[in-house]
UniProtKB/TrEMBL annotation:
Pathway note: Lipid metabolism; sphingolipid metabolism; Sphingolipid metabolism
Cofactor(s) of this protein: pyridoxal 5'-phosphate
UniProt key word Ribosomal protein: no
Keywords: Acyltransferase, Lipid metabolism, Pyridoxal phosphate, Sphingolipid metabolism, Transferase
Membrane-spanning residues: none
GO terms under biological process: ceramide biosynthetic process; sphingosine biosynthetic process
InterPro entries according to UniProt: Aminotransferase_I/II_large (IPR004839), AON_synthase_class-II (IPR050087), PyrdxlP-dep_Trfase (IPR015424), PyrdxlP-dep_Trfase_major (IPR015421), PyrdxlP-dep_Trfase_small (IPR015422)
Enzyme Commission number: 2.3.1.50
Family the entry assigns: Belongs to the class-II pyridoxal-phosphate-dependent aminotransferase family.
GO cellular component, one term: membrane
UniProt-recorded name of the protein: Serine palmitoyltransferase 1
Organism: Heterorhabditis bacteriophora
Length: 144
């Protein structure tokens, strides 16, 4: 079964048991930035302890409009998210098969479109393999 919920609803955690909820407008909403909401003492601590630019800059109008429109599309056509979850599950399964017996492993939730691919070999080999993989397909890659 597929859900159009946040992580608290997905795992059955009452929202009042959560001190802070954070979200990103990047990737899925084709924008940038994010948000944090929660109990005032926690958010206040976050604001005081975080880097200044995080809380002093607003989104450019074009990016705010893009995020708002993406949310509107999801709201009026929730089937889009269900299809994305189905496609993500298929890709997850195919990646698991493709990585079997290799130095690559896959982590994360199968219905999530974001796939965490771990290379368990030598670092210089990882860089070479990653370059090959990125050149073959259009991928968004973050190195840690």
């Amino acid at each position: 079964m597929y859900f159009l919920t946040g992580v608290t609803e997905h795992y059955g955690v009452p929202i009042l048991d959560v001190d802070m909820v954070i979200g990103s407008l990047e990737n899925a909403l084709a924008s940038t930035g994010g948000f944090c909401v929660g109990r005032s003492y926690v958010v206040g601590h976050q604001r005081l302890s975080g880097l200044g630019y995080c809380f002093s800059a607003s989104l450019p109008p074009l990016l705010a409009t893009a995020a708002s429109e993406a949310l509107r599309l999801i709201e009026v056509d929730p089937e889009r998210v269900i299809k994305l979850q189905q496609y993500s599950k298929c890709i997850h399964k195919e990646l698991q098969v493709a990585f079997k017996g290799s130095n690559f492993s896959l982590r994360g939730v199968d219905i999530s479109p974001m796939k965490h691919i771990i290379y368990n070999g030598e670092r210089n080999m990882m860089d070479q393999k990653l370059d090959e993989l990125v050149n073959k397909a259009s991928l968004y890659v973050v190195l840690e």
